[in-house]
Amino acid sequence: MADNTKDEEIILTIENLRRIYKDDDGADVEALEDVSLKIKRGEFISIIGASGCGKTTLLRSIAGLDKPDSGTIVMDGHPITKPDPERGYVFQQGGLFNWLTVEQNISYGLKTRRVYKQKKDDVAKYIELVGLKGFEESYPYQISGGMAQRVAIARTLINEPKMLLLDEPMGALDSFTRADIQDKLLELHKLNGITMVLVTHDIDEAIYLSDRIVIMTPRPGKISNIIDVKIPHPRQRGGVEFLAMRRKLLEEFDLATALPEPEYNI
Amino acid sequence: MIKKSSAIYGLLLSVSGFLIAALLNALIPITAPVEIVDYHIGGTVVTINIAYRIVLFFLSALFLVQGLVSLRDHDRWKKFAKGAPLRFASGIGLLLWDLLGTKWQVLPQPFFPGPAGIIEAFLIEPGFVLENTLYSLRLYAAGFVLGVVFGVGTGILIGWFPKVYYWVTPVLNVTGVIPAVAWMPFALTLLPTPFAAAVFLIVICVWFPVTSLTAQGIKSTPKVQFEAARTLGSNTFDLVFRVAVPHAMPQIFTGISTANAFAFTTLVMAEMMGQPGGLGYYINLSKVWSAYYKVFAAIVVMAVLFSFITAILERIEKYALRWQKGLVR
Ligand SMILES: Nc1ncnc2c1ncn2[C@@H]1O[C@H](COP(=O)(O)OP(=O)(O)OP(=O)(O)O)[C@@H](O)[C@H]1O
Ligand SMILES: [Mg+2]
């Protein structure tokens, strides 16, 4: 668990993060307690853990969508206080603008950042990149869930973010579409070296994609372990190293959450 | 592929009712004591019966063309064919009305003139009818456009700022239940012209539904859409005008079409209460002279005009909401 990475490689530092929600009865829910984490530039990191362990809360804090009660998040020397296009965020679902076509959804960020005139040509480039050529004029209701998530990814990428935050972006998809998007993410990661932070329930997905896997446990939500995945790409889901890593993670989980059986999607 | 026999049947059914009505109008003699006046229009002599037959021929030609055009597209033809029995029945209905109202005058006169009698209003004073129609149209356009603009504006304010919601909603709820024409006495005394007073009433009756539905639409925008917009670099202006307002569009259009119906009612009632023109004014004027055929003529103009406006609004709505599931087929 020791974090012995060199400072210049670090893009984001989270220190002693704490977030307490009030539930309906007014009782405190410790969504995050004393969470510290350093994320390296260009790495693919997955956050995995049982439901309610604070994964979304952590990711939203990094995005600047949620304010922690205490602790700091610093990205390249600047504390994070509000959302910024340099940190793209892909929601599980429902984030697309239904009244805009695929093309208009993707160019949205260019327009709100007032750079559409200069960067108009990027739109076609990113449509091509996520494999949606021919669907430019379709509205969200006319495309599949997998395609919708590609649009969601493309419209964050067009802002050329330093970091991509993904909260279970494949949670609502069938396994074929899921594998398809996983490969797309790897391809994008390799292509422009964006730092990726992925929240997932799926152990295999985490192993398949990540350089490091952060394991969280609930009540109170905190990081219980961080595991390096040193399997070379492309990873074989049935490969020996893959299965060994999987066994290791499952053991971690048994240790980490002794009481209720964790939900893993296998 | 549309079968030839069904195409011929559908087209025939659509036009034959009107053609039968025209034919029998020409063949059956008038037995009631009706005075048939010759009107000279552009060098030709026109009687009410000739004008009536022209209208019937025009209707059948219209449906014939519409039917022939719709033959190109299967869905459109199906829609057209579905209306064919209705068109036939309308023609027969007109025929019966012609017999009862004009030819035999079984219906009590002068309260229920036949269709040809109604057309007389357009032959006697086409300019005056047109003038009043344009007056109504101007009144409607001014009131409706202003009402929608104000309505969407206040709706956005109410939907976006909780403080405005708190203070304005009670006002909206109280004024919303009052029929707009109730303000007529105040409007007439406080505003410089009767026209302005009527515009004011229409603005009020349009404002209420547009405002409350716009506010509802803005408030119901899912949080995730705002959050997505913020992570993509939106400022507050973008959140309102690029996210909340487009999201509220379906509700805004619901408000607009409700307001449209209110506006017609208010328009006609306002015109009947002291306007120097308009179709409502024309009805009032004609009633005084017991010229009931003119009253009917004004009603026919209203029916055509209001249907036309409603159809245009529907077109606009369909285009603006083409992104909605289930709306486009
Ligand atoms: N807005 C909120 N108000 C109150 N409690 C909240 C709120 N958001 C999260 N919580 C609570 O904080 C805890 C952590 O929530 P969070 O959504 O971060 O978990 P998660 O790990 O993302 O879970 P899941 O895997 O189900 O998405 C949970 O117990 C949750 O009930
Ligand atoms: Mg979550």
First-last Cα distance of chain A: 25 Å
As for the number of domains of chain A, it is 2
Number of strands of chain B: 2
State the fourth-level CATH superfamily of the largest domain in chain B.
Answer: MetI-like
CATH architecture of the largest domain in chain A: 3-Layer(aba) Sandwich
Classification by helices and strands of chain A:
alpha/beta
Number of helices of chain A: 7
Rg of chain B over CA atoms, rounded to whole Å, is: 25 Å
Largest sheet of chain A: 6 strands, mixed
Mean pLDDT of chain A: 88
Class computed from helices, strands and strand pairing of chain B:
mainly alpha
**Which fold name corresponds to the CATH topology of the largest domain in chain A?**
Rossmann fold
Strand content of chain B: under 5%
- How many E-type strands of chain A? 10
Q: What percentage of residues of chain B falls in helices of 4 or more residues? A: over 70%
- Distance, first to last CA of chain B: 19 Å
Largest sheet of chain B: 2 strands, antiparallel
Instruction: Walk across the major sheet of chain A and give the strand order.
Output: 6-7-8-3-9-10
Write the layout of secondary structure elements.
The complex is a heterodimer of chains A (266) and B (329).
Chain A: E1 10-22, E2 28-40, E3 44-49, H1 55-63, E4 70-75, E5 78-79, E6 87-90, H2 102-112, H3 116-129, H4 145-157, E7 163-167, H5 175-192, E8 195-200, H6 203-209, E9 212-217, E10 222-228, H7 240-256
Parallel strand pairs in A: 3-8, 3-9, 6-7, 7-8
Antiparallel strand pairs in A: 1-2, 1-4, 4-5, 9-10
Chain B: H1 4-27, E1 39-41, E2 44-46, H2 48-70, H3 74-82, H4 84-103, H5 115-124, H6 126-160, H7 162-177, H8 184-190, H9 194-219, H10 223-231, H11 236-272, H12 279-288, H13 292-320
Antiparallel strand pairs in B: 1-2
Bound molecules: adenosine-5'-triphosphate and magnesium ion (MG).
The site of magnesium ion has 2 residues of chain A, from helix 1.
